[in-house]
Amino acid sequence: MPMVTVSISPLQAAGIRAAVDTGTYASSSEVVREALRMWDAARKRGDICAVPVAANGPDGPSKSSRCVADMFADYETERARHN
Predict the structure, then answer these.
(1) Is the dihedral of CA 46, 56, 65, 24 positive or negative?
(2) What is the pLDDT of residue 49?
(3) Band (56; pLDDT cuts 50, 70, 90)
(4) Domain limits at 28?
(5) Crossing angle, helix 68-82 and helix 28-45, to 10 degrees?
(6) Has residue 39 got a pLDDT over 60?
């Protein structure tokens, strides 16, 4: 599997660590892989804008675009309902 290095905020790193520490995920790599699968699926459904924000025009992203944090919040809400 190819290795990719990314920079994340301390808050994001803490969230990943918490997900692993609570046993929700086995590793930080598993958290990131799931996040990327969710992002890719949402992008394919058209739930999020595939165009960078700067390319959306002077008013920013279109109202139909969603950020990854929104997707995770929705996912965690649904997951909590089913557990």
Answers:
(1) positive
(2) 63
(3) very low
(4) 10-82
(5) 110
(6) yes
